[in-house]
Please model this.
Amino acid sequence: MGIKYYTHFIAQPDGAAEHSEYRGIVELLGRFDARHSDRDIARVLARSFDLEESAIQILQWQRLH
Model:
């Protein structure tokens, strides 16, 4: 069973003039907490969108209760 998080982030592939902004609930099988940085979270999101980690900018991330 996954753990749900609220996320708000921007995806802008390298060299792209425009970006896409996402907000919503994501469910992960692993737990992300204070030990994990925004870059760790960006890596997971980037894989889901088939982007490079550098294309993701995390604006907000928190676990839902």
